[in-house]
Amino acid sequence: MRHWRTRKDHFKGVWENEVVPMLKQNAELQPLTLFEHFADKYPEKFQRSKLRTFQRKVKKWKALNGSGKEVMFLQEKIPGRMGLSGFTKLKKVTITINGEPLKHLLYHFRLIYSGWCHVKVAQLWEPLLSRAQEEHWNPAQYLATLCEQEVNERYSRRIARFTKESHLPVGKSLETFNFNHTPAIRQEKIEALAQNSDWVKRAENLLFFGPSGVGKTHLAAAISHALIEQSIRVRHFTTTALVQKMQQARADLQLESFLSKLDKYAVIVLDDLGYVKKSDAETHVLFELIAHRYETGSIIITSNQPFGEWDKIFADPSMTVAAIDRVVHHSIIIEIQADSHRKRQAISRNMKSHLEPEPIQEDKNKTTGR
Q: In angstroms, rounded to a whole number, what is the distance separating the alpha carbons of residues 206 and 202?
């Protein structure tokens, strides 16, 4: 076994004098956060090509000098195997609506292993009980129906929560999109992307290219709404707004944490990517997002600039090639060639206004005879 280095230590001096003291002060600092911090101070030492080496170096230091790992012991009870549930009628607690008492039961469910509890006011038990008595249901059928209604209610609440957190444009659905104005788009293909989420499970990307006003954002939002209906979490951003958030996170040494928080969304929508300014600060964080999501989560991109013009977005040619390579590797590309919907609507309004007769105005200076 050899104990000498065979390659030059690019971080010599900075590692011992600055990196290690920061790790000793806060061992939770992430390698990417540290690398971004020192890349601003020592760009000649902390080049992008040395990121992987730096990450391995930090990982080794934490393994040898970091805080001890938590020890987990196996328990006899297997998680998810056993639970307790029941309905309780609260005699001393009264819930009123407009002064009228609400007839309800308290549904209580508890997992034996973790002790996790869920308590909910069950309001549909009485109508179901009357129906069960009339139709002579057995207890199992009654409980199954009550649980089914609980599942349906939870689904509705989940979809409402996912829709709210997605920040998607409202009113954008496939039903409201006029495919007659975009004959180059196959409606069946768009509907398949909306109804079949296998491409999301494979972490593939969906790219919409075309001039302004042809419906790129509408289709991206419509497909996203359909995915939410399948309990898939989506987050919509205008790309410029997201870039500003990431720039702030980078300035606070929290970029890696910010990107990790986006991992809970299976799909990230980058709307109007072509409007990002060509600057090192903006395009750098945008590339970090693309690299972070590569083969781990789907991205839906709308852009009025094809790949051939992405050098107008990314300041560095090598970064442009790397970004395109990661985006295209697992992707579905849809090009839209049509006239702008907004332009067509404006022309239609103008034509309508010209066709309508102008109201006749009475001449105020005209005098009437006696």
A: 12
